[in-house]
Amino acid sequence: MADLAISQNDLVAPAVRRFSPIITIVVLLALVPLISKATGDIFIIRAFTRVIIFAMVAVALNIILGLGGLISMMHAGLFGIGAYTVAILAYHDVSQESFLGFLPGTSELLISLPCAALATASFAALFGSVAVRTSGTYFIMITLAFNQMLYYFFVSFQHYGGDDGLQILSTTTIAGFSSTDRIPFYYISLGALAACLIFTAKLRESKFGLVLRAMAQNERRVVALGLASNRYKLAAFVISSALAGLAGGLWANSQQFVSPADMSWIRSGDFIVMIVLGGTRHTWGPVVGAIAYLMLELVLSSWTTYWQIPLGLFIVGVVVFLHDGLVGAILNFLPSRQAKS
Predict the structure, then answer these.
(1) Which end of the chain is more exposed for a tag (fewer CB within 10 A), N or C?
(2) Which stretch of DSSP H or E encloses residue 257?
(3) Helix 265-278 to helix 308-321 angle, to the nearest 10 degrees?
(4) Which residue, 187, 225, 259, is CA-closest to 36?
(5) Where are the beta strands (DSSP E) in 114-242?
(6) What is the pTM of this model?
(7) Proportion of the chain in helix, strand, coil states, percent, rounded to 5
(8) How far apart are CA 239 and CA 217, in angstroms?
(9) Is 197 exposed, middle or buried (0-12, 13-18, 19+ CB in 10 A)?
């Protein structure tokens, strides 16, 4: 029995160490509602729900940026597709009209959130099949063009609010229970982020992740080995997009409102800045970057209308002096380098 216990510990301990940064972040974020209750400030939960959802998009985007070396300016548009999917299904649930003439609406997130991920993945497969044929600057420009196409499509889509956005008028539910309560929805969002982090960490360690990293270093050598690089890039783009769409669905439910403003290319730039701030080499880097970026934005904008200037200086300082982002700086203070995994 003792030997069995030792062998189980030997198996469990490395896994715990490997995921210890993710566990630490999730535990710290799980304390936020308790802090909010203690201080009586409900705004803290609203602010950190935004952090969690945007961090999820940044983690998703880092699959193709950090692993594949592809800079996508389209993830705000994909995030918006997920958000509009949830909002449009809720709209048709209230109006009792079928979507596209045959699909009934729903306010049940167990249905609408998978639909959001599926719809986003479908659009990503369509746009991505064209985009992955390019690389470098051309990939950035084509994804930027696709993003703006999506943005202006929803701006001109007057049936669903156009540039005024679309309000969710129904009470959305999860398994029949209301999902509009702040604290339960906060933990649902945190659970989704934790699952996204673990999935991304496993993906990074897989053979698929290894091929993506190799392509980021030298795609021509990967092709010379007989691997179809475009298929790997497209698969990574679709996976990344599906997770971004899922985050968009959570965002729509969190705000009970969606707007084309969240699909602007500027939002895509925000997600990239979050990743660069946190560090592209680590699965949990985008979460740290999202927390730093959104908290600085919140605090600085309450001090001055010119908050972009100090925020910009901070970003420049991180890029110039911290080549591995904020995560690199954090790891330098840790006694064990094992956490770097």
Answers:
(1) N
(2) strand 257-258
(3) 40
(4) 187
(5) 166-167, 173-174, 177-178
(6) 0.90
(7) 75, 5, 20
(8) 21
(9) buried
- 3-class SS at 143? helix
Q: Would you say 22 and 194 are in contact if contact means Cβ atoms under 8 Å apart? A: yes
Nearest to 288, CA basis, from 59, 32, 64: 59
| 3-state secondary structure (DSSP) of residue 258 | strand
Digit-coded pLDDT (tens) for 149-208: 999 999 998 989 899 999 999 888 888 888 878 899 999 999 999 999 999 999 998 999
Q: Return the bridge partners of 99, or none.
A: 103
CA nearest to 189, candidates 132, 231, 107, 250? 250
CA distances from 153 to 19, 162, 163, 309 (A): 41, 9, 10, 32
